[in-house]
Amino acid sequence: MMSKSIELSPGALTLAQLRQIWQEPVVLTLPPEAIGAMDASSAIVAKIIREGNPAYGINTGFGKLAQQRIPDHDLEQLQKNLILSHSVGVGEPVSDAVARLIMAMKIASLARGFSGIRSHVVTTLLDILNAGVVPFIPSKGSVGASGDLAPLSHMTLTLIGEGQAKWQGEWMPAQQALAKAGITPIVLAAKEGLALINGTQVSTALALNGLFRTQTLFRNAILAGALSVDAAKGSDAPFDARIHELRGQPGQIYAARLYRELLAGSQIRQSHRDNDNKVQDPYSLRCQPQVMGAIQDLITQNERTLLTEANAVTDNPLVFPGQNGEPDQVISGGNFHAEPVAFAADGLALAIAEIGALAERRVALLIDASISGLPPFLVPSAGLNSGFMIAHVTAAALASENKSLAHPASVDSLPTSANQEDHVSMATFAARRLEDMAQNTAAIVAIELLCAAQGIDFHAPLLTSERLQNVQDAIRQAVPFYDQDRYLAPDIEAVKALVLDESLAATAADLF
């Protein structure tokens, strides 16, 4: 039962609020002043219609058909036709978590009062979200410019009682789902359909999903990398604060501190501090602050972009009330172009791919007895047992797949709408592919954690640091020591689940 409540302050959503909406259903509310702002905006639209002035999207056609004037008696039908004709998405529906974000951000954007939509329409969408009705929003069919037209149209279908929706886990006709939730469908007035389907909320929701996944992967990869250092009897000298202060990169300084604190007090490290035979560790151990620090800086940069976009007004045209004696204005622009989101998603794709690439290299290091000093393939009686030999192959396959998926989507563009929309962002795909990449990297990190935990066990009775021992214990509660060959896929899935649900990172929550 939903008990948590969040007030959607238009233009002032926080990342913590967005993450909470993504994680679980919550009750959302709007401040009273948002109702007045929306009604004032819709009154301007009504005035335009009364006075007979032509305005794009209010009493004209759309896109290339913008020169077509629509009679007043057809304006409601115009909006319904817009939604029906634009509902052309294909593929699997977005997740419930992403759907919640889409609706929440669309509500918050419209509630800023620049979209010419009645407050009743927006509060009905809010009721749909709070009731747990999930619109069927196909994941494919948007090029990330002129808004996420197709997927947002599918969202709007539910609002008007058309299409499919989910109620209590079951897909059914949207009108039936609304009836079960006690909600009356909306009849859209002038401008309202366009306000609902113009915007970057689908691209942004998918990118936020990728951002939250990337943050989770970062924390778990830091833990895995530190555990691997101890498993391979690596040096903690490369994490010395003086090295990183000289370079000055903030993410690198932060990452180095995490490794220092994670390894502090390790008996394993102390056992070889005075007799290290290795002059320098391989890069996958030694250069972790440099790589993971750069990833952290990339995450921070794209987090800022996506939070800005989550609070933005991105539909078109926009309605501006007159000030200082100036008349009200409806201005057509291009805030629906999702280039900032596309760039952010491409940046996160690089981050996810590199987290996995670095973890895969440490897996390769740990199973190689000539480098790690551990038993071959991390198993007793190697030869009779293959150990983690093929688990590394899986990690390599996933890392390679991520390389292809990391190719920037934002450099592509195909003109649409008879060349009216002649440059598009491809932000929706850029953001959508992040979930697949994150799932790949979560599995790679899980494999590294299994390998590193195995290496730590081989050093018994010496213990790793207290912090890392907590990580080790969490792994061993889920997966036993690998003493002989067994069905290994379930072990990978078990630890992958610990990665994705933040169970492991919670053992060092005070660090991050």
Please provide a brief summary of the model.
The chain has helices spanning 15-23, 32-51, 75-86, 96-110, 119-131, 149-159, 174-181, 192-197, 201-231, 241-247, 250-263, 267-271, 283-286, 288-310, 339-367, 369-372, 389-405, 427-458, 466-478, 489-500, and strands at 5-7, 27-29, 90-93, 134-135, 138-140, 164-167, 170-173, 318-320, 329-331.
Distance between the termini: 30 Å
The tally of beta strands, per DSSP, is 9
Major beta sheet, strand line-up: 4-6-7
The CATH superfamily label of the largest domain reads Fumarase/aspartase (Central domain)
Biggest sheet record: 3 strands, antiparallel
Mean pLDDT: 94
Q: What percent of the residues sit in helical stretches (DSSP H or I)?
A: 55-70%
CATH topology of the largest domain: Fumarase C, Chain A, domain 2
Quickly give the structural class. mainly alpha
Q: State the name of the first-level CATH class of the largest domain.
A: Mainly Alpha
> What is the alpha-carbon Rg in Å?
26 Å
Outline: elongated
Number of discrete helical segments: 20
Any idea how many domains?
2
**Beta strand %:** 5-15%
Identify low-pLDDT runs: none
**What string gives the helices and strands in order?**
EHEHHEHHEEHEEHHHHHHHHEEHHHHHH
CATH architecture identity of the largest domain: Up-down Bundle
Modified residues (2,3-didehydroalanine (Ser)): 146
Organism: Alcaligenes pakistanensis
Main location: cytoplasm
GO molecular function, one term: histidine ammonia-lyase activity
